[in-house]
Structures
1.
Amino acid sequence: MTKKSSTYHLFVIAAFIGVLLTFLVFYLVDLGIGTESRLVGRCYDGSVIEGESFLDDFNRVVYQNNATLSVIEEYRYRLFDTVNHKNVLSGKNDFLFEVSDEQNGYHYLEDYKGNCSFSDDELAAILNNLQQTKASYEERGAEFLLVILPNAQTVYSDYMPAYLGDISDQTRLDGLEQYLRQNGFTCFVNLTDDLRAYREQEHRSYKEERLLYNNTENSLNSLGFYYVYRSVYDRFSSTVMSSTAVLEPRHLSFYQHLTAGKAIAQQAGLVSLQNKSVSLSKDTKLHYRFTWDTGLAAKTMLLPFDFSVNVSGSPPLLLQTTDSWTRAQLEPFFSNTFSNVTYQTDLSDNSEVFEKAAPRLVIRFVYENELSQLLPQ
Amino acid sequence: MKGKEESRLQLTGPVFLFLFLPLSLPLSLLFPKGRQGLFLSLLSLLWYGLAYHGNLPACLHIAGLLLFAALIVFFPGKRGKTRTVIGVILPLASLLTARVLDFCLPAYTYPMGLGFLTLALISLVLDLSHGGAEPPRNPFDLIAYLLLFPTLAVGPVIRYRHFEAMLKRSTRSMRLFSDGVLFYTQGFVKRLAVAAVFTRSFQRLLEEVNASFLFLLSALLFSLIIFFFFLSGTADMARGVCAMYGLSLPRDRQSILLATAPHTMLFGILFSLYRYFDDYLATPLRRLGGKRGVILAELSVWLCFLLFIGIHPLLLVVALPALVCAIVCGLRGQAGRSHPMPLRVLFFLLSSMATAAVTLALLLGSPARVLSTLRGMSHAAHLPLYQFFLALPDAQYLLYALAVIAALSLYRLLSVRLALLRSLRQHPGALLARSLLLLLAFVLTALYFMPQFPEYAGSLAGSIGL
């Protein structure tokens, strides 16, 4: 018994000393090698270890160690669904969601719970603004269409954390849609139902579901934008449809791939969390060319000899987007379909651009989190 | 940042764990068996110097107290009442001054461990004056007692006569060392994997929520858990480190799971502090006799205990249930243990709530903050549950931790009652399994939790105000 207990005590002591020495060697090696690439700027709680003494350096190597903190972020997320960032929420199926968009003064979660609706005055102002815009374009012979692109939180609301419950049916977008319809304004499209339907279709058709949004950035991917294009195209008249050749999935080549974690994952220190993206293949044929590009706006023209497009039936389009990235995503689809497409990277009624574009239809794309941009500026 | 110095060498810190401890342990072997006091004193001086070399006023304050202690102990002459009175009043005055300066002067850094050093010095003076112990053999033994660094943060409070006996008995053995390892790892896990995470969540609750009934319930529960695990974890670590150095400290707490009165639960968490005041304050007062003596004794212990751990005088009202129970039990004799089980469970729950109110007041700190928290609650509309979860990113981990705590508590309670479980706990296989689990938990805590808390592990000591 005494011999056995001595062995037990020896084992405990050896294990403890072994653990301490292992950690010591690991951190001393890090300290000895150098600190530039192995340290991050702050500790896990955001504080900084100050001081230049050996003890301060040693503390820094432990508390600001890049490798250790990355492992902690990853396992804190994987084991406990916890993200070390106030503006990032951990959802299901490796989805990360933003909590708020400070630039646009928008709070995703509050809107998700229906606490973020426009006031009556704001709704009236938006309606008035849209009616004026529509009238202004109609005077110049163009129709106007507002296309609202929903948040990832809206289309993939079932991936939001369980404690948030179901998405409210009184979100800001729902409220705006109801108000516009009640007041007879129908020149707009809310793509929420369309994208949800396409998502469901993807889920049924493919063994491994192809996402429409980047799971670590909450932005639409190429497949998502393709479905945006299809949703808009399917609302054109039969004349337009007969005069143009819609891009079917067989015309395009999408491929699913994994990339390093995008913007939201990087914010949360979860770069190792892979982003499941669907991109348009780089060998997709572009049957159009640019006729002019001023930076703010650019125009494309369909090359006439590759597609049997009745140019006279294909209306010139002016697509307004809030950023150049959205324009770049829409361009392969719209420019490969319509004879003349002008892209404007802001939502203003720019007469110079309008004159150059000479559109029959102005399509304004606005994201759900940017609906406040519809208010009069 | 304030508190930076003590965070550098706290027992949960990497500098202590991976540098100081591994380097000092072999050094202890160089000192012969009877020179433990010399080794501990040099080590404690080194530790304090490394931790506080940037804070000259603190070092001077501590050095002054050590010099004063040496004068009191070694100055030739009779140990009369004058020497005893000076030996008690001067350290208390220095402690009070430090507390006032800390409150009034933002630039002043309160020397960590001053409270426990003061208690130790007073204990030394009183034990020597009563003839309950022999004077230290040399200044090193004196410094080893006053500045025993593992106990400076949150105790345990060691009375001089007990330390004298421990020092005489001190030995180096594999058994003591391995016990020390297990105590230390247990305390490390309690401090970082439980107390620190709950502290972080508690502070998030205060910042983000501060309203609703659910907030109050969580705040009470969290504060009790933080208080218990922080104090018991630190005491375990202190016990573990001292055992590794050859000194066997006594257990510092009573089982709060068996407590059925608020005062036994509250005092049981920092039992050595309670016994200290009971020994030196309450016992002489009880000798006055009758109800007056009992009431004065219980009142003095209650007051000193709470003011020492940091409850603001205006907040003593939250601890009145503990005082009332202490007085009632004192007048009746020992608190009855013969209640039927349902009643004991009810008393346990009520005591927990009463103790939680005290710990919550302790963590909130000033009366202004307590009032603003209560005001926020009274004005709060119904707070949606999701906002509560949003405020607590660690919610899932906290639930797991609570489940484990509940399971272990139940196991502990059952093993007290059931002989079979008790004998099973002593089985060599069970001992080995427990040790392995503890070591694994220690490794995971060092890898996963320690880097998350560069400040937390030390900040709570500041809020407890020792």
2.
Amino acid sequence: MINKQEILEAIANAQTPEAVESVRIAWLGRKGKITVAFEEMTKLEGDARRVRGRELNELKQEVEKALVQRLQQFAPTERPYDSSLPGRPVELGHIHPLTTFSLRVRDIWRSFGYSYHEGPELEDQWFNFDGLNVPKDHPARDVQDTFFISDHPDLVLRTHSSTVQLRIPVTHHIQPPFRFVEIGKVYRHEATDATHESMFFQCDGVLVDRNVSIAHLVTTLKAFLHQLYPGKKIRVRPSFFPFVEPGLEVDVWWEVPGRQGRWLEVLGAGLTHPNVITAMGLDPKVWQGFAFGMGLDRLALIEYGIPDIRLLYSGNLPFLKQF
Amino acid sequence: MRVSYSWLKEFVPDLPPVDALVAQLPMHGLEVEEVIDQSKGLETIVVGEVLTVEKHPQADKLQLTTVQVGGEHILHIVCGAPNVRVGMKVPVALVGTTLPGGMTIERRAIRGQQSEGMLCAEDELGIGTSHEGLLELPADARPGQSFVEVLGLDDVLLDMSLPSNRADLLSIRGVAREIAAVLGLAVRWPAESSSKEKVGKTSWKAAIDAGSGVQQLSIQSIRELTQPATPEYIVRRLRSAGIRSVNVIVDITNYVMLEYGQPLHAYDADTLHGKELHGRRLKTEIPFVTLDGEERILPAECLVITDEDRVLGAGGIMGGKETEVTPETRNIILEAAIFDGPSIRRSARALGLTTEAAKRFERGIWMSSPQNALRAARALLHTICGGIVDGDIVSDGASEAKAVAIVVDLGIYEQRIGRSEKMSELLEALRRFGYVIKGKTSVTLTAPDWRMDVHGPEDILDDLGRVFGYEDLPALFPPSAVIPERLSESVQLKDDLRQALVQLGATEIILHATYGQQAVDQVGGEHILVANPLDQTQHALRASLLPGIERVILAEVDAGRDAFVFEIGRVFCGQGGVDEQPWRVGIGLALKVPTGSAIDWEVNGKVRALGRILRRSVPSCMPNVRMVKGRTIASVEFDLQAFGPTQAITLAPQGLAPAVERDVTIEVEPTMAYEQVRQIIMSLKLPLLQSVTPTNLYEVEGSRKLTVHCQFQDAARTLTSAEADGMIEKIAALFRR
């Protein structure tokens, strides 16, 4: 037999929320006496079952009410809610800052209808140099600037991502008109310091079409920079790269509070050199193109205020977990 | 290259003021990296005349001087320079001066003696590197006169970064001509001095070996020179280009090089054997003492100039000590040549010498250059040093370039640039660059011989682009509509993997693609080696991501932290083909758990979750596991190509009666794989058992406890507690010992 008074006394005598909970389990838990009584009730017939059901339901409601009331007596007075407690640490994942920056750049170009392709990092010299109008004796091919490969005189670690200008059209057999970008690692034989690394990321893009002009190129690059650096002043000035002619560079006016503004070199570009169009296997009388390239590391350092480029590739987790 | 503003202005009289010029040049393809105002910080340096010098009573190496610095001002200055003497004129830094090195001059006591200024050496003033003693100023400098004025430092130097394809710009004349052309200004070359100074016919000869890489050798003999002091303007301009004054003859050859871009060499004619200079290529290496007094080995294939019986110098790089011009030299042979650029570069690298001459020969010298420079040098020598110009220049080799005519329809300018200019302005701009123009719109252009970079219409467009710039072009997008391709499977998988791993709490790392011998041994197998590594700890292309990942997590373990990292990158394997650089993902974990099945539990949990997020099958894995400093580290890598295809989502049927869930903790042999446990449970063939999932695992001293979560469900009705308890008891009983 269940004694209601006994239950209510037990609840009243419980001195902690845990004690209240054990009273609840003893009576209303999965094997609690009231729960069991409900199960036994199902064996009764007719009126007896109905009467017993009502009794038990009333009892259950009264007990539940008493439990809630008793619990409420503890809650507010015992301990105020501690909003200052940081809580159980949640381990978050982190994306590398250069990946984040690269994906931002990739997304902009994709939104302009550029495809995305990737080229190899270990590359034939022809794709890295000759095909891009950098002849055998060009100073850029010196040991000082390029990592060469033992027993493979034809291979280098690519020194720029401009390799894809040829690599993709030639090995993917894409027919013009086409346009695509790539973002990937490039390598330079260079002693490292706070602003120089022997490995870094570049984005390169190429477009081949009929009647391509500098105006098309500049408009495209300005549209890109408007996405990456909205509202910043931009200037375009002539420059030289072997694989484009005419060549140009694009600067962005960079202002940091408290420091003098300066022009920041962001993009190198130009109309694809006819020799490069020929190297793609196309006729430069019919097809022209433009190409552009940008180094991502320096811009990411500026973007995130990173003081030393070596932090990027050191695997320094306390540093990386800030991103 | 450092370019003197005042020198440029001699050739381009309408040159804008420095600030305006520096603002305009970048917009015309000429970059100014730095504007060096030489007088900056030197305003309070004045000429002082040393009146007295006495020994410092308390210091052996110091002396007490009195120095007259104009009017009646006499300063007491303590000085440590060995060359200080009465009567000499020296630069005096007055009290309050902050020297370029950052030192501020104050009135103070040095070992008990008052000092009211500082007598300066060259390096202290930031105008040179010498610290041999005080910089002695010309005797006619007046005490109190501005030091800047005396040394002519009131010039501004432009440190310019010039396009690497323009050999002709490594000269003041070249830069002046380019600036004038792009800014639309006139150039004014000083009148060529007449060649009347020539006398008679020389008996000297020049010869080259055909095909040797010495393309032209031109010489001029000059006799009976005197050697006065080098004029101050020459010393100054050499200094601003970083070249030290040697003697008047050498200084003049260097000065002409700066002006014309043609390196010149002067030999003391009396030290030469025979009367012929010969240009050739060395067949075998030889020892040789260069001008700087160093004994070097000239490499085989080095281009050299010889006389009758010996090598005189590494052509285009550095001359020899034996035949150098000394202060006693009276008779000289001036040499100007054209050497094959790549040969010069290789030899200069082999010798470890980057001289001003080599820099210019590497870029290339045009045909008319040697003789122009020789004419300029002999005129200047004749004016300054007198002497007799011994006949005319003698020369061997090509002296005239094949002029390449480029036929171009100037309508191409509007097509390729996207904006039109008046035809007359285009033609005028090209004329300023020195093009010879025939025709009106479809024109035939012949580039001047110094423009070795011009080959076709695109180069003409580039020249015009530098004049008219690329600002304010019409806004136009490329004409054709192109449907972009989808991201490739590989790129998409990389994106998905990165997102999934970050979702699981991992940190992305990007590491170098090379590692050293220790990693090579650890990974094993063939490695592709870098022929010229930066250092021996980076000599192999990585064939695995794991050594790098382990290095990173070990650093965390050392610092007493858990770690969970991943890298997505290429590895390089096989025989070194371009096609053998697959993408991999490497994952590393460091946790405070025992090495037993606990780490399998952790690794598999993450790998499973990865598969669930990706909805792809993850390749089977065999992680490297070891215990370091109380933590277990595990690392594993997968080829991206080994991941299965994306699977569709299969949804559980809705509207069924709710499942009843029960946990049971069982004890199993530590060696028993979970799959066996599952098989045993399944062998009961409980029809209502919907799923079995292990939710906890712990091992203590040879015993392994596993908590298994079971779901029981009948689609048609809700099961009672007792039914579920009965079934879970059957499972528990299976494992009770």
